[in-house]
Amino acid sequence: MRPVTRLLRDELIDRIIAEAREVLCKLGVEIHNKAVLSMLADHGAPVDKDTCYARFTESIIDKALAAVPHSFKLFDVLGNETHDFQGDSVYFTPGSTSLNILDSQSGKMRRPTTADYIRYVKLTSGLQHIASQSTALIPADVHEKISDSYRLYLSLLYGEKPVVTGAFTVESFEIMKDLQVAVRGSESALRAQPLTIFSCCPTAPLKWSDVTSQNLVDCARWSIPVELISMPLSGFMAPVTLVGSLIQQTAENLSGVVISQLVNPGHAILYGGSPAIFDVRFETTPMGAVETMMLDCANSEIGKRLGMPTQGYIAFSDAKQLDAQAGLESAMGATLAALSGINSISGPGMLDFESCLSLEKLVVDNEICGMTYRLLRGIEPREDFPSIPLFEELRQKKQLLIAAHTRRYLREEITFPGAVIDRANRERWLEDGALTLRDRAAREVSRIVAASKPSRLPEETKQELTRLMRREAQRYGMEALPAGDE
Q1: 3-state secondary structure of 273
Q2: With DSSP H G I counted as helix, E B as strand and the rest as coil, what are the percentages for the chain, rounded to 5?
Q3: Which of 103, 215, 277, 334 could disulfide-pair with 315, CB 3.0 to 4.6 Å?
């Protein structure tokens, strides 16, 4: 039996959804995109173009929910299926768009470079329990206008796993789409085998900017899956109660579902979010707070009730170093997320309110993810009945180390983590150098990166990716891409 966690009764979920729909129909959503407002008006939504407010109708919402897919699949750069977002399937991906990296040598935060990003991609490629890449770092050695497309470029050039990404501007979507078409070979192939998921984020409270709403529209037109990332801040930009925040989050996400499905009925969506409470003591948004985790898990329950696969920004820490706080917050988040059946869990590797990526933390989090996968398999009998023969053997031989039953089920029953997790006795630990967690993690990062192999993407495709990226960089005055991109 697969263990599960539930935070909301079905009746409460239905009440939250009903309240969110009422908010959309009576108060509406502020949308700073004239084309989207016109589209909504064409479908019967009352629109005030002067205030940019659109009030939805029950009919529009119902039609969108009837059209949105209950599941979809994701594929790597080689066209292999890697994700099947349905039921309670669980996949982990690193957190995204951090401004800093925790330097392996100094232990201090600094701005990342192209070399850091490539190292991150190579590391992620070698982590068994991380199913996809994210555009996790923002390299500081390129023009800010190409920072989003450049990150996708590096991910596609050096890694094979699919990518969770997003666009900062309306203009950058075109090159990011072209990079994906170059990998797939044609527009139809990209539609048939999605390679990325784009994050599209409404602004709290109940608002869509011109950029994010246009990104949503563009993704829908190209059948590029999106994750809707509502970001209420409980007690600041959302009601302080968790139920109140969930009503707002549901309304914001539902508005995104409507926009998406009006553009392209059947457009694939992850019903997601990056909620947080607001800690009034420090004026911060703690992602490691238990209430934040509860909001993520409850939001997933609502998304599933509405018939969509789900996403959540969870399983990371607000700590500034790879320390005990980082471990407890990340492990608790990953476990709750997995038990809640969040389909796409974004967060491993992140520190400092998702503003800093640590490669060392990423390898530790990979082990946490592995442990959660074992937990999800639950406990099932494996030739345990009748038990008398096994206990007779134990009584006779005084141990079962080499018993046929042990050899048959050892690897299935017991998870053996990698070298980053210390399970040696004290004597052996001392003999091996008395390494700390950070020491072991740093050594594991170096080992995985050194062992990485080039992407199997055809060389001509890699050259086309570089040609497209160079042309985009030249639009903003960069004659050459940073060293390390060849």
Answers
A1: strand
A2: 45, 15, 40
A3: 334
Give the per-residue pLDDT at 485: 45
The dihedral sign for the CA sequence 320, 324, 325, 330: positive
Q: Tell me the average pLDDT across 72-89.
A: 98
How far apart, in Å, are the Cα atoms of 255 and each of 198, 212, 299, 370? Answer: 17, 13, 15, 35
Query: What distance in Å separates the CA atoms of residue 166 and residue 198, rounded to the nearest whole number?
Result: 5
**Confidence band of 126 (pLDDT split at 50, 70, 90):** very high
Rounded to whole angstroms, the Cα distance separating 353 from 88 reads 27
pLDDT of 159 strictly over 60 = yes
Q: Has residue 483 got a pLDDT over 90?
A: no
- Residue 192 is encoded by which pair of tokens? 């048939």
16: left (phi over 0), alpha (psi -120 to 50) or beta: alpha
Phi-psi region of 479 (alpha: psi -120 to 50; beta: other; left: phi over 0): alpha
Residue among 7, 5, 4, 6 at smallest CA distance from 245: 7
The pLDDT score that the predictor gives to residue 470 is 97
Residue ranges of the domains in the chain? 10-63, 67-377
With a cut of 80, say whether residue 398 has pLDDT above it: yes
Integer Cα distance of 338 and 342 in angstroms:
6
Name the DSSP letter for residue 236.
Answer: T
- Taking CA atoms, 91 is separated from 51, 85, 157, 171, 348, in Å, by 40, 9, 22, 30, 11
**What are residue 91's DSSP bridge partners?**
344
CB 78 within 8 A of CB 160: yes
The structural architecture, per CATH, of the domain 67-377 is: Alpha-Beta Barrel (3.20)
pLDDT at 486: 43
- The SS3 of residue 450 is helix
Of 176, 103, 88, the residue nearest 378 (C-alpha): 88
The closest of 350, 357, 471 to 101, measured between CA atoms, is 357
